[in-house]
Amino acid sequence: MHMDKINVKTGRDSSYDIIIDDSFSFLKDALKELYPINDRKVCIISDTNVGPLYLDQVKESLNDVFSACTDISFNAGEASKNLDTIKCFYEHLIKERFGRNDVLIALGGGVTGDMCGFTAATFLRGVDYIQIPTSLLSQVDSSIGGKTGVDNAGYKNVVGLFNHPEFVYLCSLFLRTLDEKNMLSGGAEMLKLGIIGDRVLYRDATAYFKKFHLMDYDTKEDLESLIMRAVKYKCRLVEKDYREHGPRRVLNLGHTFAHAIEKCSPVPVSHGNAVSIGTVLAARIGQALGKTSPKVVEGLVEDFTAIGLPVSTSLDMLTLLDAIAKDRRSKDNAIDFVIPVKIGSAALLHLDMDQFRKLALSL
Length: 363
Ligand code: NAD
Description:
- The protein is α/β, with parallel strands linked by helices.
- It has helices at residues 27-34, 50-60, 83-95, 110-122, 136-142, 180-197, 199-214, 220-240, 255-264, 271-288, 294-307, 317-325, 353-361, and strands at 3-9, 15-21, 41-47, 68-74, 103-108, 128-133, 147-152, 155-162, 167-170, 330-331, 334-342, 345-352.
- It contains 13 helices and 12 strands.
- The radius of gyration is 20 Å and the shape is globular.
- 47% of the residues are buried.
- The mean pLDDT is 94.
- Nicotinamide-adenine-dinucleotide binds next to α2, α4, α5, β8 and α6.
């Protein structure tokens, strides 16, 4: 049994812990430390896949910590990440007579975490929430940094706000039930973190996921170490820029095209798969600008392909460009766009929209 803590600073006087537990043993202790008197109610928000797997186990750790425990679940998937679902959450909390003192827990992947954080920020002008991320993507990326929100009118994360949790409780045991598609989706975000700032993380995560795909590898310890390194790197970026006005924006590598692909695809595409394609397209744009060497682009394509991540899309580029033009990242006929310069370094460019269109159409 082992537990680590990483403290993330979110302002001059505020911070929260990421608790990394390898055996699901320390959740109760962490909650008791935060809430020593059991005078609060708690509501666990989860989806229809994660709830049946882990609700009972998590509830056991809540005994004696909270005065009452309730839960609410939504249909798993990005399609639920909208204001209608949030309205159901509000109605549940009102029915259960939740007050300002009470607490929400996000038990699930990035969709659950983003919606729970948004609900916690807006219900009664703000209640506490705790993140228990259960997908790889949510463990290494979405549960850290306080970005919360929902999709609206076909646009990803267009309604939302920054709201940091009281703590994040991260246990890799949850990943035992995650399917390969979603493991790779999280792998894509992990590789992204390596590409933008940690060459060694990229190298090791690539080696890990190449073997993972072939399924001939006992993975637990390697995976835990990779998760820890990815989390530490993301925390460093968040601390430098906790409201994403500056250096943290490189985390959007691959996301301009990814959001357009997710929006335009007739069938659901996992976020990680969309980020994978988006990262390769960003590298190709970097190459067309003379800022990314062809060797880097070829290396990314080779690695992603060997891992089983997609590197291209059959969607029409004009359709994608149309979606990008309407995206919140492009305004005043210009776009902020992240390219990988080399493995371990990325650049945020401010490109004229016409230039961006020409580059994208030339790929
Ligand atoms: P998700 O929450 O939909 O989870 C993916 C799938 O895995 C779902 O079907 C879920 O039910 C299932 N699942 C999760 N944990 C499981 C487990 N332990 N066992 C079995 N099944 C499990 O999506 P995701 O991939 O975790 O996250 C993607 C979302 O995160 C997107 O909405 C994206 O916009 C958001 N995101 C947010 C941030 C941020 O900073 N807030 C960053 C990156 C991505």
